[in-house]
Amino acid sequence: MANMNVTTINTLDLMEALHQAASSLDQAIQMDENYLDLSVLLQVQQYDQPTASGNLDSDYPGVEDPRIGMSSVDEIGSIKKIPLPPELVEQFGPKKNHDPNFPSNNCGLMAPELRTIQSSQTASVFGEMHLIPEPLFSIPSDNVHILSIRNADNGRIFMAGKDGCLYELHYQAEDGWFSRKCRKINHSKGKLSTIMMSFYYFSASDDAAVVRISIDNSRNILYTQSEAGTLQVFDMGEDGMSMSRVASLSQDSIVQKAALIAKMVDKSNFKPIIHIAAIPREESVNIHLVAVTHTGMRLYFTTVPLGNTRGRPYTLSLVHTRLPPGYSARAPPQRPSNVHTALYTKGTLMLAASQSEDSDLLWTIASDAFPFKKHLQETHEMRPLDGRTWAIEEVPNELLGAVPLSFTDGLKPDPPAVVTQHMRSNRKFVIINSQGSYILTKQNPSDKLRQLLLNFGPTSVEVEAYFQRHQEQAFATCLLLACNQSVTEQQVSELATAAFFRYGGDPKYNYDVTLAAANSPYDVHPGSGLGSVSRFMGAGTSIHPGMPNQISTPIPNVTRHMSFGYNTTLSGPSGGQASEVIFSNRFHGLCLYLARILRPIWNFRMVIEYPIKTEKGMEELLGSRCNSDDISWVLNKLKDLKDFVDRNSQFTSPLLSEGSFTQSLQRSPRARLGLQRAADGDDQSMRRLQAEADCQENNYLKQLQILINISCEALGLWHILCTHRFHIIVKNLTKEQQNVLRHMTFRHFVTQGKEMSHALITSLIGMYLNDNAVTDAISARLREVCPAFYSYEDHIYSKANEMLKTATGTQHSSVEREKLLAEALTKYKQISAQLDLPTVCRQFSAVRFYRGIVDLALTSAETRDPQGFAVHFYDNGEPSEDTQGMCAYRLRMDCYKCITETLDFLLSTSLSHPQSPSVPSSPGPPPAPDPNRLTNREAQIYVDEVFSLALKSQDKMFHICLYDWLIMKQLSEKLLEIQSPYLEPYLKRKADMNHLETLDLLWKYYEKIQNYAAAANILDKLAGQAGEIPLSKRMEYLSRAIMCAKGCTRLTYPSTDGEFLHQLEEKMEVAQLQLNISEALHRNKGIPEVDEALIRLNSQLIDINTLYAEFADRFDLSECKLAIIHCAGYHDPTMVEALWQDIIDKEFQNSQHLDTQARMKTLNQKLVNLGRIYATSEKCFPLAFLVKLLERRCCECNLDVADLSLVFRTLQDTGITLPRLHEIYDRLYKSKDFCWKTLKKPFHLLEVIEKLLRSFAESPNVVPAYDRRHFTTTSLDAIAFYLVELQSESTAGGTVSFLMKNFKDIQARLERFI
C-alpha cells in the first residue's frame, strides 16, 4: 500500500475515512465478542437438565488428513526437562517405594495478606525474595495430618485435614483481646473444634479425609473433595472474608447422575475422582466446577441456576458429562485410563495416565484450535513421560501489556486464545516426577501456523488447507507472524507475508446472492443474529472466492460452519444492507488483527478519576487509565502492523487484466456461473464489475491505513502526555473540556478528538511556557510523533505563543516588547487559516495589543475565504441553498467577532465609572490599585485607535459587520459620521428588508448629506409602515417629511412640483383626524371593541373614508365626524346641524351634575375650541342654527338667569364679530319663532340683544373702527324697531318696561357716537 500523509488529506475526507474505518473496526471487535459461554458449548440449558458430549466425531475432530491443515501440528511445543539433583534422588529413593502419598502435598508456597505481613515484619516485601530464619506464625496441628494447602487471592490460607475437616490458618498483625495473632479455625465442625480434645479426631475414617481444595477467587467459592469422592461447597461471602458450608454431593450420587446422562458408558468410569478445578467467571459464567475421574471423564457442576450470575451458591448440580477421546464411532481405540494426576485450567486438560510403574502417558486436550464454534470441539495429543507424575501445575501467564483484555463485569467469559494470543506469552506447565521437572510450552494458534510454514512452506497443501479452514482467523493470525520484526523471526515473517497474499484472494462482485448461498460448502444460519458483523463476510456465503477451494474429495470430520463459527448475510463495510462486493480475506484479516491490537483501549475511557488529598481537602483528579508502558506496548504492535502495510504496496489490488480476470474465474466456478447469469457472458461487463469490486476494497483498505496511521499518532501523543504529568495537563483544561475528556474513549479520540488533542497539546505547551522553558524540543518531538495532531502550523502557533509569553515579561523595554508582539503577530498571520483566533485575541487583549487583534482578525477572514464566497453569498441575498457561501460567511463573521468583542470591552471600560473604594474586609490601609487595569482615558484612546484601524479596511464584509455592531450598540451618530462607500448600500439593503431602525438611520443619512428628496420619501415610507409604530411617531415622520420636502429645491417624486408636498400635508391632516379618533376612543378603553380599534389605529395610517365609516360613525364620535366632513370639504347642512346638535346636547348632558358657573365655563371652553376650528367655514359652522340652539338650551337649563350674555360672548370668543352676532339675533327675533313662548320666555331674545348692544355701547372698541359707525347706525335702527315692538305688546309688564328703559338708555349712548 502506498504511503500516504494524512495531514495532506482534506479534513472532511479524513473524518469520513476515519469514521468508515472505525465502523469496520467496530464490526471486527463485535465479531470477536460473539464467542459462546462454556455452558452453551456444552448444550446446557437448565441446571436440572444435564447433557453429555464427547461421543461424536465432531467433538474430537481428527487432524491426520493434511487437508484439514492441522497435521504435524503439536499442541505442546517444546518440553524442557530439568533433572533432580543427585542429592534429592538419593533421599527420595527409600521413600517413594513405601509411601503411596509421596511426595507429600502438605506444604504450600503462597502470597500472604500484605498489610498483615508488613505490620509484623519491617523488612521490605518487594524486590528480591528473602528467607526469614524464624517463622512468623506457628500453631500446633493437634495430631491432624494436613493433606493439602491452598490460599485465596486475598491472603486466606486453607488446609485439608485427614480428619475430614477444612481448616483455615487465620493470622493477624497483633494479638487481640479475645484472639491470638495466629490460630486455626475448623470450618467443618464449627466452634466445637476449639474446645474438643485432640483425641476426638483419631476416630475419623480415612475415607472422610479431605484430599483436595480448589478456590474460585472470582466468585469467592471454595470446593473440597474427600478421599471417598464427596464434594463440598463453601461460600466465602460476597467480599471473600466469611465462610459457610452450603452444599455437599457424595460420590455415589455423582456416579448415579452421570450414568443416567451418559448411558452408553459404564459406571466404573465415573469414579474415583482424581482432580477438581474451579472454573472462574473468566472461563464460564454458568459452569462453576469440573471434576476429572481416573478415566478422563469430566463432570461439570454449577452452584446456582443458569443465568443467575450474581447469586450466592446454595447447591451443587451436575449439568454435563464430557467423555474423553475414544468414545466416538470412528475414533481410535485408545482412551485415557489409569489416570492418577490431572490438571484443568482455562479450557486445557492434562491427564497423567500410568503406562507402567516408571512411565506415564500425558494426554493434552484443548479447544484453542476451534474457537467460535457452536459446540465444544477439542484436539487431543499424547506424549510419553519417563517416571511417575507427582504434580502438574501451570506457570502464571501474565499479559505482555498490563492493559486489561476486556471489562465484562463477570457477565461474559474472556475471549478465546486466538483473540488474545498477541497479548500473552505461551502458556507453560510444570510436571514434577521422580525424574525431575518437565516444563511444557503450549502452542498458540500463531505457533501452529508458524510450524506449518516452517515445515511445509507457504505453497503446501497443509498451509492452503489451514487458511481455507480458518479463513479470517487464519489471516489475522498470519498477520501476527508477518508483522514480527524480530531478526530471529525474519524468515517466518517472510513466509507468512507470502502466504497472506497468496491466499488472501481478490474482492469479488456478488453476482447472485441466492446462487452463492445455495452452492456454499458451509452452513448458513440466518438466525444467528450477527447482522452487525456482516460487513466482513460474503452475502449468504462464508467462503470467499479468492480462496483456493478446488479440493477433489470432502474434508473428513469438518463441521460445515463459516469462519469463526458465524453465519450471516454479507454486507459491505458501508452499511448493514447486502453488499454487491465480497471483500477479500486479506481485508477481513487486517480488520480483525487491527481490532485485536486496539481492543483493550478502543471502546474504553482514556482517563480515570482518583481522589487525592490537598490543602483544600479531597480532590478528584483525572489520570490516564493506561500508563506509558501499556501505551508503548500497544503502540509497538500497531507500528509493526503499520510498517507491514506501508512496505507491501501490493496490498491494494491493481485493476485486473483480461488474463488475470479469466484466471480468477477459473479459480471460482461459482463466481463464473453468477457472472454468466448476470452478464450473459459479456466479458466487458464482467471486467467492469470486477474493477468496481477492486476499487471499493482499495478504498476501504486506504481508510484502514489512515486509521492505523492516526491511531499510531494518537497513541504516541498519549504516551508523551503520560510522561509529562498527565493529571497536571488535564487539570489545566477548562471544566467543559475535562467533562468531555472524562467520558472520551480512544475511539472517539481518534475519530473526533481533534479539538481535545489540540487542547491537551496546548496545555502541555503551556506547562513549558509557564516554566519559562523553550518549546522547540517538545514541539519537534510532537511533530515527529503525531504530525496529524501537531502539524507545522501547530509548531508555528507554539512559537508565536512563546514570543507572546516572553513579551509579557516586565524585563523588556517598550521597544523590545512591541518588536516581540509584532513578530508573534507575523507568525500568527502565517497560520491564520487554522488559528484558534478567539484564544489568540484574548492573549493580545491581555497585553493591550489591540491593533494586532484587528490585523490578525482581518487577515484570518481573508485567508479562510480567499475566493470571496461570502461576498457573493451576501450580494445575492444570502440564499439558503448556497451552503458554501453560507459557510464562508459564517467563517468571516467569526473572525470579525473578535474585533467587535474587543470594541465592546474597550467601550464599556471607557464609559464605566472609576473603581470606587469597597468596604474593607480587614483593618489596615486600603489595597493598592491594580496597575494593569485600564483607565477610562486609556480605554477611550484604544477605542479610537481600533475604530480608526477598522475603518481603513477595504473588507466589505467587515464593514457590514461593524455597521451591525454600531446599530446594536445604539451608536447611530457614530455610524452616520462614517464616510465609506459601503454605508449607503448597507443602509439601503437593510431598508429594503423593512428594518425600521435602518430606515430611521437612512433618512438621517440622506438629511446629513442634504439629499432632502430621498429623506422625505424615506420618512413618508416610515409613516406608512405597518407595524407597532405609535401614531404620534407616524405624525412626527410626516411632519419631518413635510419639512424635508419644503427644503428640497428639486423633488425627485414622479409628479409635478409641489404635488408631493401637498400629498404629505393631506396625509398629515388625515393623521390628525386619526389621532383625534384615537384620543376619543381612549376614554372608553377597556371595552374589547374599543381596544381592538385602538390597536388598529396605532398600527397604520388609515384613509379618511375608513376613518369615518369604521371608527367615527361606528362609535358615534360626532366631533370626529364633523372634523372629517370639514377635512373632506363635504357639504351637507342637515348632517352638519345634526352633528352640532349632538355635540351640544352631549355637552349639556355631561355637565348637568356641575354647578351653574362650572357648567357655563365647561360649555364655553367646548364651544370656543370647536368654534376656532370651524368658525371660518360656513359649511361646518351654521351660526344661526348654533345661536338658536344654544339659546334654547340655555333657557331650558336656566343658564340665562345667571348670564344672558353667555352664548354671544362665547361665540364672540371664537372670532365671530359683534355686528355679525347682532345680525343673527335680530333675524331670529324677527322670525317670531313660537318656541320662546313655549319656553315661557317670549322676550328672551330681546334681553340677549339688549345685553349685546349694551356691551357695544359700553365698549365700542369691540367693533373695528372702520365698521363702528355703520354698526352704530344699524343698532339705532334696530333699537327703534325694538321699542316699537315693545310698545305694541298688549300686556305691559315689568319685563317690557325694563327692556324699553334699557333700550332707550343704549339709544342715547349710541346717538352720542354719531
UniProtKB/TrEMBL annotation:
It is found in: Nucleus membrane; Nucleus, Nuclear pore complex. GO terms for biological process: mRNA transport; protein import into nucleus; protein localization to nuclear inner membrane; RNA export from nucleus; transcription-dependent tethering of RNA polymerase II gene DNA at nuclear periphery. Coiled coil: none annotated. It is a peripheral membrane protein. Its main location: nucleus. GO terms for molecular function: structural constituent of nuclear pore. This is Nuclear pore complex protein Nup155.
